[in-house]
Design a protein that fits this description.
The complex is a heterodimer of chains A (494) and B (555).
Chain A (H helix, E strand, L loop, with lengths): L5 H13 L3 E2 H8 L3 H13 L3 E13 L1 H9 L2 H11 L3 E3 H7 L6 H10 L4 E5 L2 E5 L8 H9 L4 E2 L5 H10 L2 E13 L1 H5 L4 E3 L4 H6 L5 E3 L18 H15 L3 E2 L5 E3 H4 L20 E3 L8 H13 L14 H5 L1 E3 L4 H10 L5 E10 L11 E10 L5 H14 L5 E8 L2 E11 L4 E11 L1 H4 L8 E7 L1 H8 L12 H6 L5
Chain B lengths: L2 E4 L1 H8 L5 H7 L5 E6 L4 E5 L9 H11 L11 E10 L4 H4 L1 E8 L5 H16 L8 E7 L7 E6 L5 E2 L8 E2 H7 L1 H6 L9 E6 L4 E4 L3 E2 L12 E7 L2 H17 L3 E9 L4 E4 L5 E6 H8 L5 H10 L3 E5 L2 E6 L9 H12 L19 H15 L3 E2 L5 E2 L1 H4 L12 E2 L9 E2 L4 H9 L8 E12 L5 E12 L5 H14 L5 E5 L5 E11 L2 E9 L1 H6 L6 E7 L1 H8 L2
Parallel strand pairs in B: 4-7, 4-14, 19-23
Antiparallel strand pairs in B: 1-3, 2-3, 5-13, 5-14, 6-13, 7-10, 8-9, 10-11, 11-12, 14-15, 16-18, 17-18, 20-22, 23-24, 24-28, 25-26, 26-27, 27-28
Helix pairs in contact in B: 1-3, 5-8, 9-11, 10-11, 12-17
The chains are: A alpha+beta (494), B alpha+beta (555).
Chain lengths: 494, 555
């Protein structure tokens, strides 16, 4: 139980100070409050059981209009006494009547003068004179008039005979008034007088006043407005996680062009020029600009020879004629392997451990399971003596860091790796096996023309599928819908 | 990737021993196939395009027999001497200049066999045949043909025949215009004045390669003797395609007879070519790639299991490649054969020893820093596609269509170009999230593609943000930009009066860094909001992170 406001506190203090029940008007006088704020505070205090309110009928005396007049000028008999004393204490009646400032009250003044025995009428030489011996002291009735001049007052506080007298003279009117009385309850007498405050303010802190207030209790179980943090897209979160795994494992991140020449996207990876993957329905070609120059002539020649007859790689090559024009065409890269291969070409000294997690494009119809644009995870290791078993080891470690403990490796096929494998991992969140990455050792037809003399282990796979399983999303499009409701509420449990 | 449903009973017929469904599910992945589905009576596998010989039960059985060690080494096939001559018209050299052929005798084809043969043919057409462009195959009922046979260049309107499945005679040009297969594959030969046809000594058309066969030589379950033609652009692939098919017929019980091709100049060639190609590989090379120390005996047996013939001398292995294999180009391919023969599961994982230092790319570092500041400023990240269209990228934001990277061959009208700015995507995101609680503050960072003055592709890394709510304003957006740029150490920054139709005139500033343009900030034009059905004032900005990334890239 506490006080809602400063006002409540003032009221409680006034009641304690006076130690008795107080009427409202008195309460207002004592606290300096206006009637309506006092009333609402009293009602709140009474609800809390700190005060009780009772009613009392009271008689009030107030001056009438005539009374107001007399309160300024004095009672008529007083004025007559003053007139006569000013004339030496004796004055012919008629002369006094003429000199009296307010003729209508003269008879009344004369009557009360005689009744109060302040003076007498004597016939001197047959002429009636008013005789006053001395100035009479203030009468109780005059005291009442003076008191009431400042406002109505409870009759019981005044001289009741005087009030009766004045009321009979029409100077004072007595009125009945029903008044509410406020008094402290037992609880109100005992409670510590602290104001309850909802908001702790800088002012309360600055002034130290917080000590004298009580911080109001809340309903801590009540609902509050939902709040949405600014946050990263789940894709970014996941990409960050994967990148961190790679860097923890000692890999350097590589970036490469999104718009890539067929040369780097396909030819450098020994993908034959008539390979189905290069066809229009699988790959996005650019119409503007549609091609680019291939800068490194020697490299282009080595790649040409490798495709046509194997060059010095020991391969048969694909046969047929290799077209540089076809290699110059620009495409949206279909994988990040071109990024890795470019990096390797520029970093031919072993060891090289490089990775990328980046966008790739396929000219596919968008559906719940495929997109035209998505992300690929790719890792590469080039060193003097790395083996297929090492590839298994690195992948096992990589998956373990992603929380995927069960991995299987099957033989597979990719145009630019040999031997090739593919990994299947058990995703505990989804409770099933998922084909995740393709991998292998780069073919000599890929590495030799680039001037790389050592084996290169490579693996790559889609990022989204794994994230979908983690998030429990079954439609891949959800990841790119940018539904703010989803972005604000999706849970990112690892 | 091609798929096939493998039925254990049918496979057992070619294997010679009984195998069960469960065993197939366990074993087949070790032959580099993927289990797609397991039915009640079959297992559906997906195989790689480098193994078109997996297109039949006979082919799978051949490889599987090696795996089970019930059929080791090179599967021999022989052909008897040619009795049929096949004349080659030299005018076809520039049109479809390779011809192979063979005859199969005394083969009994039940319905299932016939279906499987058609499947093998289709797989060969699609895969190494590159959709019939490079290689196409015709299989005919030999008994309907009067040899010798002629492969000749014919006038499109002069020759007519009844195409397979059609009741009336049609000229070659009619076939291309009216028959489904003609419409589908006509593009391969249309540009030539003469079309290839195969006719017999009576002048009847057997085939119009690579389009369609004649009704005359249709295969039925009654057919016992077959005549096969392969027309192609490349002899290696043509003869391999022929071999793959012939091995299937051989395994089905047929006898193979050679066919002699006679060229105009009198020279001759006889097919099929079953001579094994040989290749050598060193044990040390195999072991170094696999990370094992396999003995010569282990390597030897692995080759046999993969149906190769082997001769071993010291470190060197000389192997004979089965004539139905098209995927052995380099001795590294033999290393994989050993891995598969030995059993990939037996290669336990090891961890490479190289000690290297990991490092993120400057682009990632800068973007991650910027992202942290943006989320600190209360913005939620969105992730949009790079591929967009003119409507979204320009018209919906009042920007004029500009120089842009365009796609040549999109499968969708929605995907025609690469975005040159992130703001249109963000406006679109707001438009699709009108039901969500405001304020909405979203941002994106990623590549945008522009065209340089020389006409080449220019990739920049951009960051844009928008804030939409009832009192969004220029000053709010400018505060965000300043806070972001200060935190990223972009200094000095100057704001100048700017112009961009996406923004309200007089309420847009260009951001200048080191006297160069860095970006733009402003209040989104009411018309843009209206176009996108938005009812909340929106302020936004876009800046180029590339200068900062370049700064970080410097050593």
């Amino acid at each position: 139980m506490s006080l809602e406001s400063r006002i409540e506190k003032d009221i409680m203090e006034a009641l304690r100070r006076t130690g008795r029940a107080l009427g409202f008007s008195e309460l207002c006088t004592l606290t300096g409050l206006n009637e309506s704020s006092a009333a609402s505070a009293v009602s709140s205090l009474s609800q809390k059981g700190l005060v009780s309110v009772s009613t009392r009928e009271t008689k009030y005396a107030r001056l009438t209009g005539e009374g107001e007049y007399h309160s300024i000028n004095g009672l008529p008999e007083r004025r007559l006494v003053k007139l006569v004393l000013g004339n030496g204490g004796i004055m012919p009646l008629e002369e006094a009547r003429k000199a009296y400032p307010d003729e209508s009250f003269f008879t009344i003044a004369l009557g009360w003068l005689r009744r109060k025995r302040w003076g007498a009428i004597r016939a001197i030489n047959g002429v009636p004179h008013i005789v006053v011996e001395k100035e009479p002291p203030e009468g109780v009735d005059e005291t009442v008039v003076r008191t009431l001049a400042s406002g109505p007052i409870e009759v019981s506080l005044l001289n009741t005979d005087a009030v009766k007298l004045l009321s009979g003279r029409g100077v004072v009117r007595v009125e009945d008034k029903v008044e509410r009385l406020v008094s402290l309850t037992e609880a109100g007498r005992l409670i510590e007088l602290k104001v309850a405050v909802t908001q702790l303010t800088p002012e309360l802190l600055r002034t130290g006043e917080w000590r004298n207030v009580e911080l109001k209790s809340y309903d801590v179980t009540a609902d509050v407005e939902p709040l949405y943090p600014g946050r990263l897209h789940p894709l970014t979160e996941f990409i960050k996680e994967v990148k961190e795994i790679f860097t923890e494992m000692g890999f350097t991140e590589a970036k490469g062009p999104l718009v890539e020449s067929c040369f780097w996207n396909f030819d450098a990876l020994f993908t034959p020029q008539d390979h189905p993957a290069r066809e229009m329905q699988d790959t996005f070609y650019l119409s503007h600009p549609s091609s680019t120059e291939l800068a490194d002539r020697q490299l282009v020649e080595r790649v040409r020879r490798t495709h046509e007859d194997g060059w010095e790689t020991g391969s048969t090559g694909w046969g047929g004629e290799w077209s540089e024009e076809a290699a110059k065409r620009l495409v949206l890269r279909t994988h990040t392997t071109c990024v890795s291969v470019r990096y390797l070409y520029e970093h031919r000294e072993p060891p090289v451990k490089v990775f990328s997690v980046d966008r790739v494009f396929r000219n596919e119809r968008v559906s719940f399971k495929s997109l035209a644009e998505f992300h690929q995870i790719e890792g590469i290791i080039m060193d003097k003596r790395v083996t297929l078993r090492d590839l298994k080891g690195v992948l096992t470690e990589f998956y373990k860091k992603l929380g995927l403990e069960k991995v299987q490796f099957w033989p597979s096929y990719f145009p630019y790796t040999e031997p090739s494998m593919n990994s299947v991992v058990y995703v505990p969140q989804a409770g099933r096996w998922l084909e995740l990455c393709g991998m292998g050792v780069f073919r000599p037809e890929v590495t030799k023309p680039l001037g790389i003399e050592h084996p290169v282990l490579a693996w790559g796979g889609g990022l989204e599928r794994l994230l979908m399983l983690r998030l429990g999303v079954t439609d891949i499009r959800v990841l790119y819908q940018n539904d703010l409701g989803w972005l604000r509420r999706v849970k990112l449990c690892p | 990737m091609p798929v096939i449903e493998v039925y254990p009973e049918r496979l057992s017929r070619f294997l010679g021993i009984d195998v069960g469904l469960k065993q197939l599910v366990e074993d087949l992945p070790w032959l580099a196939t993927d289990i797609e589905d397991v039915g009640e009576r079959f297992v559906k596998i997906e195989y790689n395009p480098n193994r078109p010989d997996f297109s039949s039960h006979a082919g799978i059985a051949r490889a599987y027999a090696g795996f089970l060690e019930i059929g080791l080494g090179y599967p021999d096939a022989v052909s008897s001497s040619p009795t049929i001559r096949f004349h080659f018209d030299s005018r076809l050299r520039g049109i479809r200049g390779v011809l192979c052929s063979a005859v199969v005798r005394n083969v009994e084809l039940v319905e299932e066999d016939l279906k499987e043969v058609i499947n093998v043919q289709e797989v060969l057409h699609q895969g190494i045949g590159r959709n019939r462009r490079k290689v196409s195959i015709g299989i005919h009922d030999l008994d309907k043909i009067r040899p010798p046979v002629y492969y000749m260049a014919a006038d499109p309107d002069a020759v007519s025949f009844k195409p397979l499945g059609i009741e009336r005679r049609m000229t070659l040009s009619e076939v291309l215009k009216e028959v489904d297969k003609g419409l589908e594959y006509g593009y391969i030969i249309k540009r030539f004045e003469k079309y290839p046809v195969i006719v017999d000594s009576t002048g009847e058309v057997l085939s119009f390669p690579p389009i369609i066969n004649s009704e005359l030589t249709r295969l039925t379950t009654e057919t016992r003797n077959l005549f096969i033609d392969v027309t192609a652009l490349d002899e290696y692939y043509a003869s391999r395609a022929l071999n793959i098919l012939l091995y299937v017929f051989k395994d089905m019980g047929g006898s193979i007879e050679a066919v002699k091709i006679i060229y105009d100049d009198g020279s001759e060639k006889t097919f099929p070519d079953f001579k094994p190609k040989t290749m050598s590989v060193e044990a040390s090379y195999i072991n170094s790639l696999l990370g094992k120390n396999l003995s010569n005996a282990e390597i030897y047996r692995s080759f046999l299991k993969c149906r190769f013939s082997v001769v071993n001398g010291g470190n060197m292995f000389k192997v004979g490649i089965p004539p139905y294999r098209v995927d052995i180009m380099h001795n590294v391919d033999l290393v994989e054969e050993v891995a598969i023969g030995y059993g990939l599961w037996r290669l336990t994982p090891t961890y490479p020893g190289a000690s290297t230092i990991g490092l993120k790319h400057p682009e990632t570092i800068v973007q991650d820093k910027a992202r942290l500041i943006m989320i600190g400023l209360g913005f939620t990240e969105v992730f949009n596609f790079l591929i967009t269209n003119e409507d979204q990228n320009y018209r919906m934001v009042r920007r004029p269509v500009g120089e842009r990277a365009r796609l040549a061959n999109s499968s969708s009208v929605e995907l025609t170009m690469l975005r040159d700015s992130l703001l249109p995507g963000l406006i679109r995101n707001l438009s699709s999230n009108k039901h969500e609680k405001y304020p909405q503050r979203i941002f994106e960072t990623g590549p945008v593609i522009r065209i340089s003055e020389e006409g080449s592709v220019l990739t920049r890394v951009s960051l844009a943000g928008v804030s939409a709510h009832s009192s969004a304003s220029f000053s709010e957006a400018k505060s965000v930009v300043l806070s972001l740029l200060n935190n990223l150490c972009f200094e000095p920054i100057v704001f100048r009066k700017g112009e961009d139709p996406l923004f309200t005139p007089g309420r847009v500033a260009k951001i200048v860094f080191n006297n160069g343009p860095l970006g733009v900030v402003g209040e989104v034009h009411p018309e843009v909001l209206e176009l996108n059905g938005l009812e909340n004032p929106t302020a936004g900005f876009e800046i180029d992170l590339t200068p900062l990334i370049e700064k970080y890239s410097k050593p």
